[in-house]
Prior knowledge:
- By secondary structure, the chain is mostly helical.
- It has helices at residues 14-37, 49-61, 64-96, 98-112, 120-127, 131-155, 159-167, 172-183, 185-206, 215-224, 228-256, 258-266.
- Helix content is 78%, strand content 0%.
- It is flat.
Amino acid sequence: xxxxxxxxxxxxxxxxxxxxxxxxxxxxxxxxxxxxxxxxxxxxxxxxxxxxxxxxxxxxxxxxxxxxxxxxxxxxxxxxxxxxxxxxxxxxxxxxxxxxxxxxxxxxxxxxxxxxxxxxxxxxxxxxxxxxxxxxxxxxxxxxxxxxxxxxxxxxxxxxxxxxxxxxxxxxxxxxxxxxxxxxxxxxxxxxxxxxxxxxxxxxxxxxxxxxxxxxxxxxxxxxxxxxxxxxxxxxxxxxxxxxxxxxxxxxxxxxxxxxxxxxxxxx
Length: 268
């Protein structure tokens, strides 16, 4: 009798994985270049890749792009920090304590269903068109993904382990720090990934509020002069923000949960 053997998949090398991941963007770039070279895409519709590179060099050389990057990253970073901190605090409170759950969860779930873009006019009335409105809009957008993930992760913590730590006299703060947060780490990182992605989306919306600096301001100026090359540069910068945000979370996963990434690599 022949006993069937389970198939063993060889882990792929990092070079091979990166090459495969790069194929999609390279194909899109090649199609873009070909469409521009053959005249299918005219500059008034979308500038060629070479024209976009020239525009990026022009903006970098005159200092507009570095200044815009610094402004946009500051807005996004501060808003994300406020949102993630608020979401994490609220998620631990409602997930770990019954009183917090009864007092806060229903209200937060109701607020979570409100699209953050609908708050733009209200924030402009409350805070004007200054930086506070932009930062708070990003903070609101990033709070709820972190809240939902943190609350769910904390609720799924092994209650027997929590009770065991209490029986040994560990304080609530100690239990949260030593038991709850490590157990909820996968959920927390998932919430952080969603919050970082939404911080970029909210940044785009926030910079539509009469911005006088930042990537959104460059886009508004480029739109006025029909500069599709600069518009493409700004769109690519926003996309780069999203890729960097995702890369940061992936790096955190590798550092904080090495066993998970090792298992995923072996199974592919």
